[in-house]
């Protein structure tokens, strides 16, 4: 691939111009792409808007299971046979304690995720009180993933101080009916638009490796550009046993480290000002090339995901330091590394989180 191709990608991205579908597909599929040249082009865009900062997010699975939706990739969906720790919404005390621990771990943003179709009016009122309490207690941003919401719900959450609302598109509109039948792609877009109307920053991403085509990936990343998503988590499908999709899709062979890096670069070129986050599956699919992911991306999850473990906090912080990057936090990176050294371990990213991990006892480390 000629050097002008990479220069063109950078220039168009910095002008916020949409790449052509041909350019997008070339990034994902062309065998003549030079990996370092592509990463360098994406890093130029990333550095322009985010320098070498990395935003760390810690996710709190605040309600697990009991979900009526049939998202075929999820262990919490009605079609899954996976044995998980079902529990209702955690107590306010647990959630506040976990917000404290997230802040003390150097997280820039604390993310609360709730299984289910969407919150009741009573749940929205409770969430609003929790958000206001967290925001008044800790210098940390709050992101909420509550399921489907309407305009009124969004206004209530905004009034409480919610910084960001997460609702992933997950895949293209074309592919969506192959992964879920209990709600539509349009339902998800309506939730994001309700948040935008209320003035809440939106977080929406995708899951790569669910049997979609390269065109589907180009389509959903282009849609996120149109929606002006402030944050885009890029998940790589983890085929946990018991999910319907894991029976028909095997992403292990298709999601090579090289391909995952191409997806992250495409996400950056199409969404230059967005926070691109390496989300679930980075340990499994990027493997030894995880660090390279932070050249196009400027954010990652630490301490695992909704229902699967990830690298230890220490490993993640050490990777950021080794790159010469800095964390976006009021906590010192060196102090955090010293703190996490004592509990340093490396779990298998394919393992389910156990109940103690998902729902820690009050006042115990998460």
How would you describe this structure to a colleague?
The longest helix has 17 residues, at about 120-135. The protein has one domain (about 20-345): Aldolase class I (TIM Barrel). The relative contact order is 0.16. The chain is globular and about 60 Å long. It is α/β, with parallel strands linked by helices and about 375 residues long. The model is unreliable at about 350-365 (pLDDT under 50). It has 15 helices and 10 strands. Strands 1, 2, 3, 4, 5, 6, 7, 8, 9 and 10 form a 10-stranded parallel β-sheet that branches.
List keywords for this structure.
single chain; 366 residues; alpha/beta; TIM Barrel; ten-stranded parallel sheet; 15 helices; 10 strands; globular; disordered C terminus
Which structural class do you get from the secondary structure elements? alpha/beta
Average pLDDT, all residues? 87
What is the name of the CATH architecture? Alpha-Beta Barrel
**How many structural units, i.e. domains?**
1
- The percentage of residues in β strands lies in 5-15%
Q: Spell the H/E element sequence.
A: HHHEHEHEHEHHEEHEHHEHEHEHH
Distance between the termini: 47 Å
Report the CATH superfamily.
Aldolase class I
List the uncertain runs: 352-366
CATH topology: TIM Barrel
DSSP helix fraction: 40-55%
Major sheet summary line: 10 strands, parallel
Shape estimate: globular
Number of helical regions: 15
* Cα radius of gyration in angstroms: 19 Å
CATH class: Alpha Beta
């Amino acid at each position: 691939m000629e050097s002008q191709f990479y220069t063109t990608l950078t220039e168009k991205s910095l002008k916020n111009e949409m790449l052509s579908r041909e350019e997008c597909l070339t990034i994902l599929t062309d065998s003549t792409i030079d990996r370092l040249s592509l990463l360098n082009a994406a890093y130029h865009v990333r550095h322009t808007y985010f320098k070498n900062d990395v935003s760390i997010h810690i996710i709190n699975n605040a309600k697990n299971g009991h979900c009526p939706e049939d998202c075929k990739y999820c262990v919490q969906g009605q079609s899954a046979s996976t044995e998980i720790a079902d529990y209702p919404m955690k107590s306010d005390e647990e959630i506040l304690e976990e917000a404290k621990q997230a802040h003390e771990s150097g997280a820039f943003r604390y993310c609360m995720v709730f299984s289910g179709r969407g919150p009741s009016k009573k749940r929205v009122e409770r969430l609003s009180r929790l958000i206001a309490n967290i925001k008044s207690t800790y210098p940390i941003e709050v992101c909420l993933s509550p399921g489907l919401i309407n305009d009124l719900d969004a206004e209530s959450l905004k009034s409480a101080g919610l910084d960001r609302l997460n609702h992933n598109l997950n895949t293209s509109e074309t592919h969506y009916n192959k992964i879920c039948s209990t709600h539509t792609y349009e339902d998800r877009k309506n939730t994001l638009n309700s948040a935008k109307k209320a003035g809440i920053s939106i977080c929406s991403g995708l899951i790569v490796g669910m049997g979609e085509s390269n065109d589907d990936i180009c389509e959903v990343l282009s849609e996120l550009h149109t929606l002006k998503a402030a944050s885009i988590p890029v998940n790589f499908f983890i085929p946990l046993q018991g999910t319907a999709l894991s029976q028909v899709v095997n992403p292990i062979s298709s999601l090579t480290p090289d391909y995952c890096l191409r997806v992250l670069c495409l996400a950056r070129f199409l969404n230059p000002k967005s926070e691109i986050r390496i989300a679930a599956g980075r340990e499994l699919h990027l493997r030894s090339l995880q660090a390279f992911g932070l050249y196009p991306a400027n954010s990652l999850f630490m301490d695992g995901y909704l229902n699967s473990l990830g690298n230890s906090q220490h490993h993640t912080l050490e990777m950021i330091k080794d790159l010469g990057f800095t964390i976006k936090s009021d906590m010192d990176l060196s102090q955090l590394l010293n703190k996490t050294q004592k509990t340093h371990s490396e779990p298998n990213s394919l393992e389910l989180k156990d109940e103690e991990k998902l729902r820690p006892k009050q006042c115990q480390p998460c």
